[in-house]
Specification:
Number of domains: 3
CATH architecture of the largest domain: Orthogonal Bundle
Organism: Caenorhabditis tropicalis
InterPro entries: Kinase-like_dom_sf
Distance between the termini: 87 Å
Number of helices: 12
Protein name: Protein kinase domain-containing protein
Structural class: alpha+beta
Largest sheet: 7 strands, mixed
Number of strands: 20
Oligomer: single chain
CATH superfamily of the largest domain: Transferase(Phosphotransferase) domain 1
Shape: elongated
Strand content: 15-25%
Radius of gyration: 27 Å
CATH topology of the largest domain: Transferase(Phosphotransferase), domain 1
Helix content: 25-40%
């Protein structure tokens, strides 16, 4: 070995060590591949290293589009396996090294042409992206960005507080934070699904409550804070207003559910297993000094199925809440979504459905809602009404609803022109 070769090897080793330290400290951890695709990688030559919720380490690269094939740049996700002696990309004999930093260095400077040939893509690794790359999306990795915290609610599932934070546009806003309590793998997956689907739906005018940012550790979604009142889940709303909600307002809640899901269907988006936790109630100003207006929205975007894009297969089935056919097909469909809608109507109308009408006949509107629920939850999916059929039925029921004396008023689109 000559002196020149020895010096070159020393400089190379020094670079590898520095590179390994930088990459280890800058790796994303406990994320999902869709999150990386949505918020991190963008341009050809971008690459990053991360570990998923399932514990798999990936090197992901944005390849240049093939001139002979139309389309956008492709993202390549290469799993990195670690043994006692080395790290390697499975199936690629040239892609092995003593550390992740050395592996990245070798791929960038020595084996990039080989990698391009094996993948049949034009690969370059020009821009290493770390956890700072998500700040432009108002996604931060630690909660030390929040000032003037004020706690509003806490239970075993979630902690809700308001506070001020600086956004990517330089503005400081007071916003609402929903922190997941005791996060596990399932909760993390739902958390990232809400972020990814929220990004996809942010340009559509849909009645969905979407996050405007997030904190990864602890997992916290950030929402706009409209007014002084804090909203709540539909489940809590029904519990807190059990006495104040009369039949008319409960039917209007059912109508709002139909409106929300029908708008999603119009965009070729559906939810094959919507439940009460998928809905959120926000205060919508005061009707008068004695009556408060509330509006129902879809809570987050997890579980939504984009027709022709999202895989609608499920591995675990909740037999109590899902449509019976899902146990056999393992597929969530528009028909199974109608079934779940019927189950949700039962929960909303429970106080009226179990009420005994001894001295007076049952209200006609309640009779029609029983009929609607029975049709929506029919065990045979082919016998259930379509979403369009549900819309027609709920409109007919709304015409039969008695006058309301409730201090709670549910606002939906049919009211906007008159109230």
């Amino acid at each position: 070995m000559t002196l020149v070769e020895s010096k070159h090897e020393f400089e190379t080793t020094k670079k590898l060590i520095e590179n390994d330290r930088d990459i280890t400290e800058s790796m994303f951890s406990n994320v999902t591949i869709p999150f990386i695709e949505t918020f991190v990688l963008k341009n050809p030559g971008d690459y990053c290293v991360y570990k998923t919720i399932d514990g798999v380490t990936y090197l992901s690269i944005v390849a240049k589009p093939n001139k002979n094939k139309k389309g956008t740049p492709q993202m390549v996700h290469l799993p990195i396996e670690t043994s006692k002696k080395e790290v390697e990309i499975k199936g690629m004999l040239f892609a092995s090294a003593k550390s992740i930093g050395q592996l990245i260095y070798q791929l960038r400077h020595e084996h990039i042409d080989i990698l391009s040939g094996v993948l049949d893509m034009k690969i370059s690794m020009n821009h290493f992206l770390d956890t700072n790359s998500t700040v432009m999306h108002n996604i931060h990795w630690k909660g030390n960005i929040v000032k003037d915290k004020m706690h509003h609610f806490q239970d075993v599932f979630i902690t809700i507080y308001t506070g001020e934070m600086k956004f990517a546009d330089g503005k400081i806003k007071e916003v609402l934070f929903e922190e997941i309590t005791s996060p596990d793998k399932t909760k993390y997956k739902v958390f990232f699904e809400k972020l990814v689907n929220g990004k996809a739906l942010s340009t559509k005018n849909l009645p969905i409550r979407l996050p405007i940012g997030a904190i990864i550790n602890p997992p916290t979604l950030i929402f706009e804070q409209n007014g002084t009142e804090i909203g709540c889940s539909l489940e809590h709303f029904l519990k807190f207003n059990y006495i104040d909600l009369d039949l008319s307002q409960r039917i209007k809640l059912c109508s709002s559910v139909v409106r929300i899901l029908s708008e999603l269907h119009h965009m070729d988006i559906y939810h094959g297993a919507s439940r009460i936790e998928n809905f959120y109630v926000e205060q919508n100003g005061n009707k008068n000094s004695k009556t408060k207006n509330f509006e129902l929205v879809f809570n987050g975007a997890n579980g939504l199925i984009f027709e022709g894009i999202t895989d609608n297969t499920v591995s675990i089935v909740d037999y109590d809440s899902n449509a019976p056919e899902v146990a056999f097909t393992r597929k969530l469909t528009k028909e199974s979504g109608v079934f779940n809608m019927g189950r949700l109507f039962e929960q909303i109308l429970k106080p009226d459905l179990i009420k005994a009408y001894k001295d007076q006949p049952e209200p006609r509107a309640l009779e029609e809602m029983r009929h609607l629920i029975a049709r929506a939850t029919h065990p045979n999916p082919s016998r259930r009404p379509t979403m369009h059929g549900i819309i027609i039925m709920i409109r007919d029921v709304l015409l039969l609803t008695p006058d309301s004396s409730s201090s709670v008023n549910i606002v939906h689109f049919n009211q906007f022109s008159t109230e």
